[in-house]
Design goal:
single chain; mainly alpha; Growth Hormone, Chain: A; about 0% strand; MFS transporter; transmembrane helix; MFS; membrane
Amino acid sequence: MATPQSNRETVDFIDEKLHGPDHVEKVLRTVQIDNFQVLGLRPEDADFYTNYPPEARKKLLRKVDVRLIPMLAVLYLISHLDRANIGNAKIEGLDTDLGLSGLQWNIVLSIFFIPYVLLEVPSNMLLKNFARPSVYLGILITSWGIIMTLTGIVQNFAGLMVTRILLGVFEAGFFPGAVYLGTFWYMPKELSTRIAIFYCASALSGAFSGLLAAGIAQMDGVGGQEGWRWIFLLEGIATVILGIISTKWLDLEEIRYLELQHFIKEGGNFKEEKKKTSWKDIKATMLNWRMYMLAYILLAQSACSYGTKFTLPTITQAMGFQDTNAQLMTVPPYVAGAISAVFFSILSDRFYWRMPFVVTPLAFVIVGYAVILSLDGKLEENVGPAFFAVILTCIGIYPIHPSTTSWTANNLAPSSRRAIGLAFNICIGNIGGIIGSYMYLESEKPKYHTGFGLSLALGASALIVTLLLELSFVFANREKAKMSEVEVRARYTDDELLAMGDKSPLFKYTL
């Protein structure tokens, strides 16, 4: 029997042939041990892998879930707190104390994203070369925690600019690196839910940001420091502590099993395990036009997300809530967004179908912003509809990223191109952060026609792109199905098929 060559085929191979009480017999009937040697595995590795107890497999997955995902979620929560708490600091007087003009405020928000966007791909390439990725990520986390702490002592516009730039430098590698690690440890059918669980920390960061800011701001005057400074100082110190903490939580046998699973998932391309990423992989990824469609969906989502994060405290103020209440009223929309992200992603993994769980949230985004626009800035007179619309937009915004990121990961092969492609798409998507920094103009407050209108347009255009992308995958799969596996193998060698990656006639795109 032929060796599995595609992600989808390998998923079926792992899920259907290796799980269950009679997994060894199924393996021996369907994939002979000799075929593991075709993959580049030693006979003892094949024997170890096929005889790894199903109870141990389930226990290991739970172990990874319990220890990896919560850790990533907490760190991602901290990263978003550290980049978005500037919006909370604003209504506590940051802009007034530092003498920022309206335009300077937008520049401070957007400058973070320039190094953040430019360094994501190089960072993921560097991560792939690190013997211990946890050490690399720990260095990044500790560094941005130090920068966040220093933000609490800036005295002017220039100082704030420097800290925001450095924050972008060190935060750039975390999210794409975390997603790449997820693709290493989890099978494709398990991926979207796991990404959603730690990505929902992005939504919860908005909620925690409001709660923390409301509490910390009460320290105004302590140590002769303004309340907004304590927001940066305390959250920065907490980040440094988390960055330093590290644990060893997998034993050698578990690591060996997961590495073999990853090896087989890649179609057994042992050459792919080399440390350096080739220019051929970079070129193949950059010329993959579908990656740009996926990246645009992330860009639209990111613009809406960051626009909301930076402006929601001001929007709740426009609804008539003041000071601490304005901070606290930002919590419910983000909690709804976090729940929505996990709910839609569970369904996406359950049906192993990404498109509907991108399109449906985008529809919520469109409806939510349409309602807000229709209120024409009269938010205080229409608190109920306005607040409902804000919640609806968050319910729509937050599921889009995990489903789209999983869609990207599922349709890129081998892992070297996946590492580049994930970072590239997240990189392009984060350009939306720059857009989100300028959408809500102080001069348009509280109507924000530009911000709400552009968010509506981005949601609608992303929905159209998603549907077109789905059609392209459907047609591509139909074309590939025209050749039988026998015909494909008669035309191409195994090395050629592996080099083709997702372009291989045996690779079936995930819809």
